[in-house]
């Protein structure tokens, strides 16, 4: 929501917030007037009113031409009251809200001397409610999500513990401590319609604490998309690991399906004693949503790099069964679909719902190890490279197939793999198809 302001036409530029349009006015008596005053008005449906709003006003001076760069930046934050206005037209009477904010122009009092070709001011007037998404804990997933949000013009902010940039985007320093009764750090976060929690929460308490702290510190003036519970949407990223115990056993310890089928869906029994599952269930009861993700890959995460860690011995290879994956690109698309869904879709398919996400494939570890067989032997001293030979893991797979395991070809049958996730429902409900299926 940036608007470039030329000194020759400093008044009457338009700034969009959500689907509405604000029309600020600016004193243009001077190139850099000492006081900048913005009056912004917007129309709200029904009786939804904002008695007070938070405003963030950012001034940026940039050079023009091919090598544009920022020459000066200053940000002001204000909280101000709103006023109710009525517009009379031949079509009828329309009710509006308006907010006026006046701030000292930092450029009028600074030592900055712009060149004639520089843009005097780019002003950003934003109500905190306008954010579509707040990413709590921008890590690996955010490296795929942020570019997609920018491409789709979805407004967002993101946090990291250090405030480091992610995907070229600055982040807000923030660390959630569920035991801290002081909500100052949470209250300072921007308001957003949807919150994406990417870091794991464990056991009873943290989900409810985060939900309550954010809602109580941000609810005033927020859109009531889910009036029965909270005006905010909470999405937690979880793991499909809750459908298995340590050691890879499916829950319950015997096959959970009466017909003996190896297929599991989001509705299948899971480990309710799992600390992450406990925290997720707590959020679901509060109207949140959980996306249980299978093995994450893409970018720096290459499943081939896992081989030396998960298949160090022949016995470990013997125990390897199924593998389920989801690429970061498709995680981002799934999140964006939930952020962008309308209120009715959220109430039916988001609020209180747990979803299972895979790319639709059930991978056989033996088939992957055999397919990744090529390794290069170390050459003689002073000679680059050596002969290409099968990996030790691929050799073990061949030995196991010949040792009476009953496997004549790869991949093995689903019944042999034992745990097969069926995630078709999510992709069907949200009208998507994975882009990065098949590792």
Describe the structure concisely for a colleague.
The chain is an alpha/beta fold and 439 residues long. It has helices at 140-151, 184-187, 206-218, 275-285, 307-310, 314-319, 328-340, 343-349, 365-371, 392-402, 414-417, 424-429, and strands spanning 3-5, 15-17, 20-22, 35-42, 52-62, 70-89, 92-104, 119-127, 131-136, 156-160, 172-173, 192-197, 233-239, 263-264, 289-293, 295-297, 322-323, 325-327, 354-357, 363-364, 374-376, 388-390, 420-421. Helix 1 (140-151) links the parallel strand 9 (131-136) and strand 10 (156-160).
How many individual domains? 2
Strand count? 23
Residue share in helices?
A: 10-25%
* CATH architecture name of the largest domain: 3-Layer(aba) Sandwich
Low-confidence stretches: 1-32, 62-68, 109-129, 221-228
**What is the CATH superfamily label of the largest domain?**
NAD(P)-binding Rossmann-like Domain
Q: Largest beta sheet: what is the strand line-up?
A: 11-10-9-12-13-15-19
Overall 3D form: elongated
């Amino acid at each position: 929501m940036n608007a470039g302001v030329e000194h020759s036409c400093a008044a009457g530029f338009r700034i969009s917030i959500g689907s509405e349009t604000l029309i600020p006015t600016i004193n243009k008596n001077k190139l850099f007037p000492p006081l900048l005053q913005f009056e912004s008005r917007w129309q709200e449906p029904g009786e939804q009113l904002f008695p007070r709003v938070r405003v963030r006003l950012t001034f940026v001076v940039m050079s023009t031409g091919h090598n544009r760069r920022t020459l000066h930046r200053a940000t002001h934050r204000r909280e101000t009251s709103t006023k109710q206005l009525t517009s009379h037209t031949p079509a009828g009477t329309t009710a509006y809200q308006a907010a006026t904010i006046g701030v000292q122009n930092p450029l009028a009092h600074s030592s900055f001397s712009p060149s004639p070709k520089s843009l005097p001011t780019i002003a950003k007037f934003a109500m905190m409610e306008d954010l579509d998404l707040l990413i709590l804990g921008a890590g690996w997933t955010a490296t795929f999500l942020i570019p997609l949000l920018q491409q789709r013009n979805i407004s967002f902010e993101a946090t990291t513990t250090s405030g480091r940039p992610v995907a070229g985007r600055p982040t807000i320093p923030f660390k959630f401590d569920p035991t801290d009764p002081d909500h100052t750090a949470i209250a300072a976060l921007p308001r957003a319609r949807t919150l994406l929690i990417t870091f794991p929460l464990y056991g009873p308490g943290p989900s409810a604490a985060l939900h309550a702290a954010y809602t109580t510190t941000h609810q005033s003036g927020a859109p009531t998309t889910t009036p029965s519970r909270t005006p905010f949407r909470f999405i937690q990223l979880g793991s499909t690991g809750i459908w298995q115990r340590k050691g890879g056993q499916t829950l319950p310890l015997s096959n959970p399906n009466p017909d003996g089928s190896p297929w599991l869906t989001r509705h299948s029994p899971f480990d309710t004693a799992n600390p992450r599952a406990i925290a997720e269930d707590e959020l679901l009861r509060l109207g949140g949503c959980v996306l249980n993700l299978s093995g994450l890959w893409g970018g720096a995460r290459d499943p081939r790099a896992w081989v030396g860690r998960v298949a160090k011995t022949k016995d470990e290879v013997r125990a390897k069964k199924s593998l389920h994956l989801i690429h970061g690109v498709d995680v981002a698309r799934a999140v964006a679909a939930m952020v962008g869904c309308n209120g009715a879709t959220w109430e039916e398919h988001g609020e209180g719902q747990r979803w299972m996400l895979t790319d639709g494939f059930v991978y056989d570890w033996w088939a992957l190890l055999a397919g990744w067989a090529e390794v290069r032997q170390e050459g003689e001293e002073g000679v680059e490279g050596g002969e290409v030979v099968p990996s030790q893991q691929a050799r073990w797979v061949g030995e196991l197939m010949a040792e009476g395991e009953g496997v004549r070809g790869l991949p093995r049958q689903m019944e042999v793999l034992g745990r097969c996730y069926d995630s078709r429902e999510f992709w069907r409900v949200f009208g998507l198809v994975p882009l990065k299926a098949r590792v």
